[in-house]
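In the laboratory, one determines a bound structure by crystallizing the protein with its ligand and collecting diffraction data. In a computational setting the workflow is compressed into a single prediction: the sequence and the ligand go in, and a structural description comes out. We illustrate the idea with calcium ion.
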Amino acid sequence: MMRELIVDFASKQQRQLLSRPWLWISLIVISLLVSAGDLFAADGLQRIKYNNPGLIVDLGVGLWAWPVPYDVDGDGDHDLIVVCPDKPYNGTYLFENTAGPNEKMPVFKAARRLGAGKHYAMPSYVDGKLRVLTPGAEHPHFLKTGLDIGMKLPLAANIHTTVVGKTPGLFKVRHNQWRYLDFDGDDALDLVVAVEDWPDYVWDDAWDANGHWTNGPLHGLVYIVRNVGSTDAPNSTRHNSTRHFWLRIAELR
Ligand SMILES: [Ca+2]
Ligand SMILES: [Ca+2]
Ligand SMILES: [Ca+2]
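The predicted complex, in structure-token form:
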């Protein structure tokens, strides 16, 4: 009985409300605000759309894309996994190639997210198999969970600790990229590590009034970490110091 009375009261109220013009004006305003919400996110930022509405593929991630090409599904064409460490598109994304082998301009399916993203994901191809490294770690389940599971290598992630320049600042070592390579051909996988050293360069606003660069150059260095064990049982720590086995083979300026 009580329920029926409440329902009946509500119906009368609704009929009275619907007869008032201000209600309809309010509904129109709310509708316009909802439409604006499609363009502007809650933080007030507007997402910029691609300007080519005729595209049939949407192959892209955010800033700092680290590509890892590999035939993930074994059908003969290269699929593409791209790691994005930035925001808001952080993740490791698999784009499946739908074109088949030998297509120079393949079309990829929409991305499937495998896991989180971080900087410096690098592919190595060992005996036809993909192995993915980030500084100081290998990711054995990369094809299923991206970088979420890491197996720590017996080395510090920052093997380049001696900066070329002495200027303190925001940028020290950037781009710390690790890959497997049998550098000396002894069938034991070694590591090649490429780093950028920034303290000498600092940042890109060091010109004087005459247009001369007043900071130092940007330094790039390549290290080989020799494996004195085997691929299955790697060892780079003989003599209690990994440094004995680091060979700095190049400095790029
Ligand atoms: Ca494939
Ligand atoms: Ca395919
Ligand atoms: Ca070797």
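The first helix runs from residue 2 to 18. Keep in mind that any predicted model is a hypothesis to be tested, not a measurement.
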